Amino acid sequence: MNGVAYFKRMAGYNRWANGHLYDACAGLSSGELDAPRTAFFPSIMRTLNHLMVADRIWMSRLLGDPIGMPLDTVLFDRFADLRTARSAQDEAIMAFIDGLDDQTLTSDLSYKSVAGKAFTMPRDLILGHMFNHQTHHRGQLSSMILEAGGKPLEIDLVFYARDML
Asked: What is d(CA 69, CA 59) in angstroms, rounded to the nearest whole number?
């Protein structure tokens, strides 16, 4: 499997896992979504918002029109609005990756961090980070959903593979 095919698979997995995550969150009350939790971001909604912020920042860099905002920005207060935006964001990621070729995928991207520091990294490493970052926080969210009385999530990559193959 070449690099573009790999990232197409990861984008599909990301969309699938986010769908399951948001389905689980939809079963929780707004009070449970906003309740203080022990995680890097202090609630389910704040963590979901962080993932949107991070994806928007990284995608803006990859698309050549960088935006900046604090990583704890709350883009959406209402879960339904956040869910709609998440779905659109996942489709935008899919479309971006569908337009990649191997030469672009392995080329370098220069950007400034949220703190303003300049970096240059290969695009494939950046995309790997984006998907890994999502997985990292989905793990935290899975724990928070259980704490809120939700059901365990089966969103490991192998479950996606079993569904898709």
From this structure: 13
Query: What value does the mean pLDDT take over residues 99-105?
Result: 95
Cα 151–148–32 angle (5° rounding)? 125
Cβ neighbors of 24 (< 8 A, separation 6 or more) are 145, 150, 151, 153
What's the pLDDT tens digit per position in 54-69? Answer: 999 999 999 999 999 9
Render pLDDT for 122-153 as a digit per residue (tens, 0 to 9). Answer: 999 999 999 999 999 999 999 999 999 999 99
Would you give the DSSP letter of residue 75? -
Task: List strand residue ranges (DSSP E) for the chain, in order.
Answer: 108-112, 118-122
**33-36: Cβ within 8 A, 24+ apart:** 33/79, 33/148, 35/148
Task: Give every CB contact of residue 154 below 8 A, 6+ residues apart in sequence.
Answer: 20
Pairwise CA distance, residues 158 & 135, whole Å: 13
